[in-house]
């Protein structure tokens, strides 16, 4: 993995500001007595060129937040902007184009096409869109991710970590304004998971990208610049410069407070004891969270949406670098 002195084309990106933001973002599923308020008037700013992790108990709204910020899901109320573009209210066709041109996705299942080479998988979204990749940028991404000598391989000829790197390169190739990663390490062993987190970190530090990652893993969240904590559809806390220990301690507090409300069917509402914490910025200077007592665990990760239906075959032949 190389850290270049200068990154091709990063001058295009703003050095600061927000890559995405939401105001009063509300998402309800269903109606009447069975209605679920997945997001409850969330205000959030995703800082540009930062690595933001999203954590919270199962059912707290992490995936819904990611999907609505990415324009993958409609909102019930509120507004969402990607850069300066308000995406709430866009027609499906416009949304599809915006996602294609400005957003990159990484899912837990790599969603690589088994019959295509690594290079073809990387450029597939642009090929579909009829766009030519910026050759300098593409080569830079390939080198940064250490995929140069794997480009002709098909997914089955790559290890899990290498496949996820290809998925990472695919998300980066079009130089999106924002990369959303949903449990990107969920299916990887710890070594490969660390590698992918390192590359996401590199994407931010060396390539100037913006990453939002949903994770259940405090160790994964520790690679981010800031962690947003959700509970009952609201952002109730944030932690800058997170460590795995501090994130774990913060997560434990959910198991004795907000986390149990959802599990027992209590109507979603602002978390008691956390008023006013649903509006946050993801600036690096944000306040840290204090640790708390009580043991606990988080739930298994969600099934990711699959824009392309082909996951890597389970019998993939592992190969080392
Ligand atoms: N399509 C849907 N229809 C009905 N309810 C839904 C739907 N999608 C999500 N929900 C509900 O919205 C709430 C938030 O779900 P979401 O998947 O965003 O949570 P999460 O924090 O990502 O959970 P997990 O960590 O378990 O994946 C949950 O109560 C969930 O049951």
Describe this structure in words.
This protein has helices at residues 62-69, 92-102, 118-129, 135-144, 160-173, 190-205, 218-221, 244-256, 258-263, and strands spanning 18-29, 36-47, 51-55, 77-82, 85-86, 103-107, 178-182, 211-214, 226-231, 234-240, 279-281. By secondary structure, the chain is of the alpha/beta class. The protein has a single domain, classed as Rossmann fold (3-Layer(aba) Sandwich). The strands form 2 sheets. Strands 6-7-8-3-9-10 form a 6-stranded mixed sheet, with helices on both faces. A 5-stranded mixed sheet has the order 5-4-1-2-11. Strand 9 (226-231) and strand 10 form a beta hairpin. Residues 1-15 and 258-321 have low confidence and may be disordered.
Layout of strands and helices, then pairs:
Elements: E1 18-29, E2 36-47, E3 51-55, H1 62-69, E4 77-82, E5 85-86, H2 92-102, E6 103-107, H3 118-129, H4 135-144, H5 160-173, E7 178-182, H6 190-205, E8 211-214, H7 218-221, E9 226-231, E10 234-240, H8 244-256, H9 258-263, E11 279-281
Parallel strand pairs: 2-11, 3-8, 3-9, 6-7, 7-8
Antiparallel strand pairs: 1-2, 1-4, 4-5, 9-10
Bound molecules: adenosine-5'-triphosphate.
